[in-house]
């Protein structure tokens, strides 16, 4: 039987893989039977995913997988564009080669493990970015970015699947590392800004025209 944390990861993965399609209503009874867990475990996981924006309430008995929304994607990117370059700028002066090496290891895992699910790739993507930001020594800023990532990751996984954006993202991540190793903070922040903005433009355009 799946435990709560296992169900949390499995349900997020299944939503990202579109096993549970956007718009579908999921009841505790349905998920309990499908995953072989108690309704108490399902309730706790549903509440966690509700807080993270992966589910929305629907009536008295269910929660819905929300549709992908161009306006929401655009707003999330707007927040990223304000917060992530700030975090990188603050972190860069004390960003050690050890942290950069760890970030490169994450990129190596992403590039050498094609069987990773979209959910796993999203988690590694955030791990890469967090390694670059963590030495900013601003715990509230990092906390905001952590919460933002939980909402953004659903869209990033969707973009990887629908627009084959993985290779473009990998190239830009490598450019970030190169610039940071050179001590070019301004250049790295510019690449990060372009990285977020370009991906968002493509995603929003796709969502509005599909």
Automatic annotation (TrEMBL):
What Gene3D superfamilies does the database record attribute to this sequence? GntR ligand-binding domain-like (1.20.120.530), Winged helix-like DNA-binding domain superfamily/Winged helix DNA-binding domain (1.10.10.10)
Q: Does the keyword Transcription apply?
A: yes
Q: Where is the HTH gntR-type domain?
A: 1-68
Top-rank taxon = Bacteria
Q: Which SUPFAM superfamilies match?
A: GntR ligand-binding domain-like, Winged helix' DNA-binding domain
The record's section on Pfam families has: FCD, GntR
Q: Which InterPro entries match?
A: GntR_C (IPR011711), TF_FadR/GntR_C (IPR008920), Tscrpt_reg_HTH_GntR (IPR000524), WH-like_DNA-bd_sf (IPR036388), WH_DNA-bd_sf (IPR036390)
Asked whether the keyword Transcription is assigned, the reply is: yes
Q: Which UniProt keywords apply?
A: DNA-binding, Transcription, Transcription regulation
Name this protein carries in UniProt = GntR family transcriptional regulator
């Amino acid at each position: 039987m799946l435990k709560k944390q296992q169900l949390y990861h499995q349900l997020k993965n299944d939503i990202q893989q579109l096993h549970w399609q956007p718009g579908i209503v999921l009841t505790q009874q349905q998920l309990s039977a499908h995953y072989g867990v108690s309704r108490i475990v399902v309730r706790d996981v549903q509440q966690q995913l509700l807080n993270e924006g992966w589910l929305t309430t629907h009536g008295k008995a269910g929660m819905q997988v929300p549709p992908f929304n161009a306006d929401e994607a655009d707003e999330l990117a707007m927040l990223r564009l304000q917060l992530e370059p700030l975090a990188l700028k603050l972190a860069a002066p004390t960003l050690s080669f050890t942290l950069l090496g760890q970030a490169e290891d994450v990129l190596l895992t992403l590039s050498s493990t094609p069987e990773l699910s979209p959910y796993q790739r999203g988690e590694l993507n955030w791990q890469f970015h967090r390694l670059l930001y963590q030495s900013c020594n601003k715990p509230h800023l990092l906390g905001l970015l952590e919460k933002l990532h939980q909402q953004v990751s659903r869209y990033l996984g969707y973009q990887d699947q629908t627009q084959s954006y993985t290779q473009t993202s990998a190239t830009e991540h490598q450019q970030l590392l190169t610039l940071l190793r050179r001590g070019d903070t301004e250049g790295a922040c510019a690449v990060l800004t372009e990285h977020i903005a370009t991906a968002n433009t493509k995603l929003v355009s796709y969502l509005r025209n599909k």
